[in-house]
Write a structure and sequence with these properties.
Chain lengths: ~140, ~180
């Protein structure tokens, strides 16, 4: 699809807005619908659109397969790491009350941190799966 | 109004499902699948489950459709004609459906305030979100804080899915090596 001018221009216009919307869903998740999972999927959708329009090779130059794999694992690490941190601070696993002086702020930090983990994992996983499917196509 | 919406959406859901059964062109099936996903998302909206509707739209209609199209690019878009009779599957479907409907008979009425699900931990979560966590979206609080273990499990499941896909079809290096060896 690399020669379709309309697609290229439309994708270039749309991708920043999709990414911003994804980040909005992530960081606004505590007051409006959405959260890490949805934000990760939206950001991955923006990137997959890029890959569809500009080709798999260009996409893998922007985000190599190894990085996507690492992101998929990193998110789980962030999530469980938050639990381990609260464990070391003397509370139960994933008990965010101790992450700050005020339990309420601790809850906010904890929720933000685990949602970030979910975002990173979901984004990485979606991109990895897309690469796996699209890579087979070009290998034929 | 809500009842009318429910009936209309469910009717369109059934029509889409029948369409998926009838259409032989798999490209059309994938598109109908996307429509099915959007219709279910609208149903979730009617039930006020905004977060679920959001996820359904993004994953069901967005990513799944792209992946299904990528699969079609590999396997072709025509369904091979079926060779067996459909009587046995039909019987199985009817028995399963009857069992499911029988199962709904003693379920509590939808949306009643004194349903068991509203009396167990839900009041505590709603109160706690307002007082201890102080964020407006109770769903976020339940997912990330009260049910943090479950969400961690879900994240791990998502990660496991990627590992499965990588093992099955994603290992480009090994395939390249195999081709070179041949």
């Amino acid at each position: 699809m690399r020669n379709e001018v309309i697609l290229r221009v439309a994708a270039k216009v749309l991708i920043p807005f999709i990414l911003i919307f994804g980040l909005y869903v992530q960081f606004h998740g505590e007051v409006s619908p959405g959260g890490g999972f949805q934000a990760g999927v939206i950001c991955a959708a923006a990137f997959i659109l890029y890959g569809l329009v500009f080709g798999l090779e260009t996409a893998q130059k922007v985000l190599p397969l190894g990085v996507a794999r690492a992101l998929a694992a990193l998110g789980v690490l962030i999530y469980s790491g938050t639990g381990v941190v609260s464990l070391f601070l003397g509370a139960k696993f994933l008990d965010y009350d101790v992450l700050a002086h005020d339990p309420m702020h601790g809850q906010h930090y904890g929720i933000m941190s685990v949602e970030m983990g979910v975002l990173v994992t979901v984004f990485g996983v979606m991109v990895v799966i897309f690469y796996a499917f699209a890579g087979r196509e070009t290998s034929r | 109004m809500e009842g009318f919406l429910d009936v209309a959406l469910l009717a369109m859901l059934v029509i889409t499902a029948l369409g998926i059964l009838r259409v032989r062109n798999l490209f059309g099936v994938v598109m109908l699948g996307g429509i099915y996903s959007f219709l279910s998302a609208s149903l979730f909206m009617v039930m006020d489950a905004v977060d679920v509707a959001f996820t359904e739209t993004a994953v069901g209609a967005g990513i799944s459709t792209v992946l299904a199209l990528a699969t079609l690019a590999l396997v072709g878009s025509e369904q091979s004609p079926k060779r067996h009779s459909s009587i046995l599957p039909l019987i199985v479907v009817f028995i399963t459906g009857a069992a499911l409907i029988y199962g709904t008979l003693d379920m509590p009425r939808y949306g009643e305030a004194d349903n068991p699900i509203h009396l167990h931990v839900a009041p505590e979560y709603i109160e706690g979100t307002r007082e201890d966590i102080q964020i407006p979206n109770v769903v976020s609080a339940v997912l990330a804080s009260y049910r943090g273990y479950d969400t961690m499990g879900e994240t791990t499941v998502v990660f496991t899915a990627a590992v499965g896909v990588m093992i099955l079809i994603g290992d480009l290096r090994r395939r390249k090596r195999k081709e070179e060896a041949e």
